[in-house]
Write a structure and sequence with these properties.
The complex is a heterodimer. Chain A is an all-alpha fold. Helices cover 80% and strands 0% of the residues of chain A. Chain A has helices spanning 7-10, 12-42, 47-61, 65-75, 86-116, 119-127, 132-147, 149-162, 174-185, 188-220. In chain A, α2 (12-42) runs antiparallel to α3 (47-61). The longest helix of chain A is centred in the last third of the chain and has 33 residues, at 188-220. The radius of gyration of chain A is 21 Å and the shape is globular. The relative contact order of chain A is 0.16. By secondary structure, chain B is of the alpha/beta class. Helices cover 38% and strands 25% of the residues of chain B. Chain B contains nine helices and ten strands. Chain B has helices at residues 40-47, 72-77, 94-104, 110-123, 139-151, 169-184, 196-202, 220-225, 230-240; strands at 2-11, 14-24, 29-33, 55-60, 63-64, 79-82, 157-161, 188-192, 205-210, 213-219. Chain B has a six-stranded mixed sheet, with helices on both faces. In chain B, strands 2-1-4-5 form a four-stranded antiparallel sheet, with helices on one face. The longest helix of chain B is centred in the last third of the chain and has 16 residues, at 169-184. Chain B is globular, with a radius of gyration of 18 Å. Chain B starts with a strand and ends with a helix. The chains are: A mainly alpha, B alpha/beta. The A-B interface holds A 118, 120-121, 123-131, 134, 138-139, 142-143, 146, 220-221 and B 48, 50, 73-74, 76-77, 79-81, 83, 85, 87-91, 100-101, 104-105, 133, 135, 146, 149-150, 153. The complex binds adenosine-5'-triphosphate and magnesium ion. The site of magnesium ion has 4 residues of chain B, from α1.
Amino acid sequence: MGIIGEFSELYLFPNGLFITIQLAITSLLGSLVLGTVIALFRIAPLVPLRWLGGGYVEFFRNTPLLVQLFFLYFATPYIGIYLGEPDTFGFRAAALGLTLYHAAYVAEIVRGGLLAVDKGQIEAARSLGLTYLGMLREVQLPQTFRAVIPPLGNIGIALVKNTSLAATIGVADLLFAGDIVESRTFRAEEAYAAVAILYLSLTIPLGILVNYLEKRMLVAR
Amino acid sequence: MIEFRDVHKHYGSLHVLNGIDLQVAEREVVVVIGPSGSGKSTLIRTINRLEPIESGTLVVNGTPVHDRKVDVNKLRRDVGMVFQSFNLFPHLTALQNVMLAPTKVKGIPRGTAREKGIALLTKVGIPEKADVHPVRLSGGQQQRVAIARALAMDPKVMLFDEPTSALDAEMIREVLDVMRDLAREGMTMIVVTHEVGFAREASNRVVFMDGGRIIEDSPTAQFFERPREERARQFLSRVIHH
Ligand SMILES: Nc1ncnc2c1ncn2[C@@H]1O[C@H](COP(=O)(O)OP(=O)(O)OP(=O)(O)O)[C@@H](O)[C@H]1O
Ligand SMILES: [Mg+2]
């Protein structure tokens, strides 16, 4: 009897898929916002802000994501950081870890995009009387995001796959569902093949969405 | 309206502005000419503080521009600038380019800003391009949108840094026509350009720069008929015969 026969276990997949999607969307939005802020720090006119941004990127890019997740999950209770009740704790630690880690990559990409905006654009905006922040919001950031959609898409896809590490800190995500199905059915090949296909069902549409956005932005540029 | 007094600036060892004294009155149109590297761009970019100065004073509309306490953003509202490379915002349509500063800097309601934007695009001769992005516009059209964008803030002064030198002959004319109209309406203008025809017809004075100094500052007719300075004479004969 194959996996399809084990009806009692199958509900685990949609539940896991749902958790994975939730985790991916939360962390993706979080890392876009945080990464953009860090990127703005890195190009800020104030030197201390630049150091802060640089330190952030170096730290989070140069330590393993799994170690960061373990730290958030196992170590925070001992240093007085409260991330939630036991039922939400794992998810929050995972979302926070994924956000912090991928924000470092987002920051590097957004920083590159910000620096690639023509200096004449910035001068034109400032000479119209826009403040530095107004110029960022109306001119430099919109142009940056149009240019960095493809590399940000790659980060997004990496992030979706990296959510699977959350299973190691007890989050009942897609991979976790696969583990349980496997342990109950002893059908490793089918369980993990199903998990892989379900990840594909997230990453491939995401890639298509990114291509579509890129094309649309090219028209407007 | 604009007054430079003994203004100096260096780029490293290069003395790019070497004791500039210059006054521009309201409704005056001043053309700045001079060889490449003489400091013309640097000069007009100090007027809205795109470039800092090291010493001397520069007063625009009664404001000491380079005073630390001056709110540079407020100052810039009154000083329109047009660049050689247009610098339109590529992610916005022509009309959105024109509306941006009035809505975001002055907080004018969108409806009012839109009406005014369309009026300005009409003034520069391209109302039909309102909803087009800059990539779809010719160079001349882009530069005219850039002029409309600067005018949208109702500036008291307009600065032009070689506004036509990136354009073909045909487009140069359409841009110069717009500038000539502006001059006729009494806009105070400082124009860096080698367009002798425009200078002769539209300007009151010509300022000739070389090596970071103002070598000659004469009424337009006099400058072209009997320039005082030998260097200006040589430069003129080169520009005119081209
Ligand atoms: N940011 C800068 N750093 C160093 N040197 C500069 C900088 N900007 C301009 N210069 C130098 O200052 C001098 C004057 O430049 P400026 O652009 O004002 O000349 P210009 O008269 O406008 O010349 P052009 O006719 O070529 O536009 C040039 O020698 C230029 O190389
Ligand atoms: Mg120049």
